[in-house]
């Protein structure tokens, strides 16, 4: 399939009304980022008059290119930014809040609630329950909540930057529901594999989900084209290199504690597996629709 660039928009602009307007007219659409702008792509070329007509129907206050003015940051711009990727921003906010209990002396009870298994302390030593006990007691939230725990400023900052860079692309170009699905599946996969490899222990962070986003985006772009998310292959390659270095123990030299390599690998495999499943379903549906015509 060939794709044609239709129009550039400011990065903070909410494009959903435009996407829906083109889809109502039978177009397939994609949005990518380039040089600080959003680029709207269509599966077939359109004239400038046709383009402006669709844009006018999408939003009453649309201004044609000849009268368009650049505006500075305003409350409306910030509101559009929040509306454009609310789940991504919520994940970052929860990560920041999840870093507070580990930095606060009185936050131990919250750490116990968010950890994968319950934690007890006696005579200066930590004791952990096991996964069987967690499931038997109905504490299902523990399968996901370790992703919000963070240990230090650099930990939460590093993960938040990657969630913003990768998560918002899925949310903007597919939907917040799809991002929620990716985060849920990859968080579960990351936490289960980390537990399987390390046993009952204290671990946490959004990095397992980040690797899930990497795996999901990498396979989707590989099979559907880079325009799907427009993430640089070099960026994805860097993350994979970091994963390998983590297993060698090199990264542990430069940080306090140890890297949760099992979570990284579990997230990556879960992201790849989810993308493969969804793409397979998509192709089956398209094949059936084609055979019905």
Automatic annotation (TrEMBL):
Transmembrane stretches, start-end: 87-104, 147-167, 179-197, 203-223, 235-255, 261-281
Residues of the Rhomboid protease N-terminal domain: 1-54
Keyword Membrane annotated: yes
Source lineage: Bacteria, Pseudomonadati, Pseudomonadota, Gammaproteobacteria, Cellvibrionales
Classification via SUPFAM superfamilies: Rhomboid-like
Pfam families with a match to the protein in the record: NRho, Rhomboid
One GO cellular component term noted in the UniProt record for this chain: membrane
Keyword terms of this UniProt record: Hydrolase, Membrane, Transmembrane, Transmembrane helix
Family affiliation: Belongs to the peptidase S54 family.
GO function terms (MF aspect): serine-type endopeptidase activity
UniProt-annotated location(s): Membrane
PANTHER family cross-referenced by the UniProt entry: PRESENILIN-ASSOCIATED RHOMBOID-LIKE PROTEIN, MITOCHONDRIAL, RHOMBOID PROTEASE
Annotated ranges, domain Peptidase S54 rhomboid: 138-279
Membrane topology: Multi-pass membrane protein
Coiled-coil residues: none
Designated name of the protein: Rhomboid family protein
Superkingdom of the organism of origin: Bacteria
């Amino acid at each position: 399939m060939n794709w044609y660039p239709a129009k550039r928009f400011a990065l903070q602009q909410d494009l959903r009304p435009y996407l829906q307007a083109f889809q109502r007219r039978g177009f397939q659409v994609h949005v990518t980022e380039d040089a600080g702008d959003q680029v709207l792509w269509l599966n077939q070329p359109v004239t400038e008059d046709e383009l402006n007509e669709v844009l006018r129907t999408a939003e009453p206050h649309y201004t044609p290119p000849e009268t368009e003015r650049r505006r500075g940051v305003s409350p409306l711009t910030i509101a559009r930014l929040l509306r454009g990727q609310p789940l991504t921003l919520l994940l970052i906010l929860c990560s920041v809040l999840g870093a507070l209990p580990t930095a606060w002396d009185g936050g131990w009870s919250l750490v116990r609630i968010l950890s994968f298994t319950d934690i007890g302390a006696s005579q200066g030593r930590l004791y952990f329950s096991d996964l069987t006990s967690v499931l038997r007691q109905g504490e299902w939230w523990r399968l996901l909540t370790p992703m919000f725990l963070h240990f230090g400023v650099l930990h939460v900052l590093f993960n938040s930057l990657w969630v913003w860079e990768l998560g918002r692309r899925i949310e903007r170009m597919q939907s917040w529901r799809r991002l929620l699905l990716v985060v849920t599946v990859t968080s579960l996969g990351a936490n289960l594999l980390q537990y399987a490899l390390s046993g009952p222990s204290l671990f946490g962070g959004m990095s397992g989900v980040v690797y899930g986003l990497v795996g999901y985006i990498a396979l989707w772009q590989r099979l559907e084209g880079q325009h799907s998310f427009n993430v640089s292959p070099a960026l994805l390659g860097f993350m994979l290199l970091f994963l390998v270095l983590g297993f060698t123990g090199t990264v542990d030299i430069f940080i306090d504690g140890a890297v949760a390599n099992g979570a990284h690998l579990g997230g990556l495999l879960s992201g790849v597996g989810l993308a493969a499943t969804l793409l397979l379903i998509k192709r089956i549906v398209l094949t059936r629709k084609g055979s019905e015509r």
